[in-house]
Amino acid sequence: MAQLGNGFDCASKSEIDLALATGIDPSRIIYAQPCKTKSYLRYAAQAGVKQMTFDNADELYKIKACFPDAELYLRILTDDSTSLCRLSMKFGASLDVARELLELAAQLELKVVGVSFHVGSGAEDPSAFVKAVQDARMVFDQAVEVGHDLHTLDVGGGFSHDTFEKFAGYLGEALDAYFPPHVRIIAEPGRYYVANAFTLAANVIARRDIPDPTDSTRDAYMVYLNDGVYGNFSNIIFDHQHPIAQILSCANGIDRSAEGIHYSIWGPTCDGIDVITQHIELPGMLDVGDWLFFEEMGAYTKCSATRFNGFSDNHEVIYISSEAGASALLDY
């Protein structure tokens, strides 16, 4: 990523370490966590990671004590009510207090260089970006009046793979309307970049037959996989996703012309919330040892896997590339 000219948005010391390990210059890292641990702040100072966000007065006093040379971004509150994962309930300064915070930063002789916002992860309303840009423009003007020299706007994340072009269009028009070309624009499109990063394959470890809840004359089946919501399917709980199962291999064969078989799909733990799919119809009789696969399992999956009930969070990764892709990577 560093070679592509990208920067890194980090939320902790460990993420800063991962970014620095790529060889990137610390100036291309932003510590975008408005409420930071003191020891992490001191580490950022030691590592030369100057850019960071804040959204309250207590954070300014902390930064003054631990890293007075930091370059600060005021994170403002947004309307993320239509987003899958709301963040404004936890972070963001309202416009009512923005000027006060800018004045306090000036009094503390801290350097505010930009404004940041985040309309929520998995945003569903593109007008939220437009309103956030308008609010950011207001805060930029207030900062100039207070005496700060702002040069960067961080438009956050919230971009989804299926709506990226539409949302980017709204955002681009708003930026052209409210900000001059010399203002640097940065973003955090992590979800968009990794949405298609991998396809997940999971093994059927158990099966249980039950009456079909939709048709008492038919059988249905509960199948249990070697992965669940405490593993790579954590996106179901944390990211409100609905992964769709497809049959990868089936010893009994797949008859796509026959009537589908009804399944519910479960994870391996003893927890009742460990359910992947309540109801799905698949064109084959699954049994122990068969495999299902789930596409677009890149965002918020492996990163939040745990070891609940003693199951491993270390999953085998198989890299698959097209011939053209392999040629580009291996330079032949």
TrEMBL record:
CDD domains in UniProt: PLPDE_III_ODC
Known EC number: 4.1.1.17
Name of this chain's protein: Ornithine decarboxylase
InterPro entries referenced in this protein's UniProt entry, alphabetically: Ala_racemase/Decarboxylase_C, De-COase2_CS, De-COase2_N, Orn/DAP/Arg_de-COase, Orn_de-COase, PLP-binding_barrel
Annotated function: Catalyzes the first and rate-limiting step of polyamine biosynthesis that converts ornithine into putrescine, which is the precursor for the polyamines, spermidine and spermine. Polyamines are essential for cell proliferation and are implicated in cellular processes, ranging from DNA replication to apoptosis.
Pathway, per record: Amine and polyamine biosynthesis; putrescine biosynthesis via L-ornithine pathway; putrescine from L-ornithine: step 1/1
First-tier enzyme category under EC: lyase
Highest taxon listed in the record's lineage: Eukaryota
Pfam family, one: Orn_Arg_deC_N
UniProt keyword annotations, A-Z: Cytoplasm, Decarboxylase, Lyase, Polyamine biosynthesis, Pyridoxal phosphate
